[in-house]
């Protein structure tokens, strides 16, 4: 039995409070040991009031852990794929951060409604608009859910570009998250200025407008990345 499996069993016998404390210590240990964080742009958000939608590209299951540390002041809730909850290692991380689970690659109306309600109540949210980790090491097409959430919540959108996290906790090529391990890596986090959503033109088709807004949001993320990470948004 692997360490993560043993730990998962051990956590089940602890109280929720003690289990959460242990998970935080474990994750902090991993981050301190393996991650060298290089953070830029904090001045862009120091005077911004919530609610805020932080939007970032997605390269690794470590992305949430990195951003939870970087955005600690904002105490964000993360939108996370349901399938993550089936992995022992990721489960430890998900006990450290607050999440709203969403079904990957689907129009999960219940989850989107929860996200909008959270924003309207003043919470800050982190969303990875691509909806899944990029297997090619650069940006893939975003999902339109972010457009609906932004429109309905009226929250401020802050773009974040991340590079290097794909080396911190690389994706297993066979798709087995239980086999993923941490490695020493420098992770660069670039935080941008608020995204200004373009106005809908008078006779513009709603679907075409949504496509334009999505592209605008995704390119605001891409602009914060080295060119080789920009993928379809070069």
From TrEMBL:
A GO MF term: 1-acylglycerol-3-phosphate O-acyltransferase activity
Keywords from the named record: Acyltransferase, Transferase
Biological process (GO), any one: phosphatidic acid biosynthetic process
Domain Phospholipid/glycerol acyltransferase: 52-165
InterPro entries, per database record: Plipid/glycerol_acylTrfase
Protein name from the UniProt record: 1-acyl-sn-glycerol-3-phosphate acyltransferase
Higher taxonomy: Bacteria, Bacillati, Bacillota, Clostridia, Eubacteriales
């Amino acid at each position: 039995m692997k360490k993560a499996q043993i730990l998962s069993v051990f956590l089940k016998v602890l109280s929720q409070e003690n289990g959460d404390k242990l998970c935080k210590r474990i994750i902090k240990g991993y981050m301190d040991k393996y991650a060298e964080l290089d953070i830029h742009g904090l001045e862009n958000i120091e005077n911004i009031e919530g609610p805020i939608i932080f939007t970032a590209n997605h390269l690794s299951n470590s992305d949430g852990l990195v951003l939870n540390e970087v955005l600690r002041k904002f105490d964000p809730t993360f939108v996370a794929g349901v399938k993550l909850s089936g992995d022992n290692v990721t489960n430890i991380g998900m006990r450290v951060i607050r999440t709203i689970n969403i079904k990957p690659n689907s129009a999960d109306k219940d989850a989107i409604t929860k996200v909008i309600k959270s924003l309207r109540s003043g919470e800050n949210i982190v969303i990875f608009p691509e909806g899944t980790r990029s297997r090619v090491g650069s940006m893939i097409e975003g999902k339109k859910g972010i457009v609906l959430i932004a429109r309905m919540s009226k929250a401020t959108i802050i773009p974040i570009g991340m590079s290097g996290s794909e080396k911190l906790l690389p994706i297993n090529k066979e798709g087995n998250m239980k086999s993923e391990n941490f490695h020493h890596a420098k992770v660069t986090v670039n935080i941008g200025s608020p995204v200004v959503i373009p106005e809908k033109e008078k006779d513009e088709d709603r679907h075409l407008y949504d496509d334009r807004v999505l592209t605008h949001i995704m390119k605001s993320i891409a602009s914060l990345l080295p060119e080789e990470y920009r993928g379809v948004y070069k």
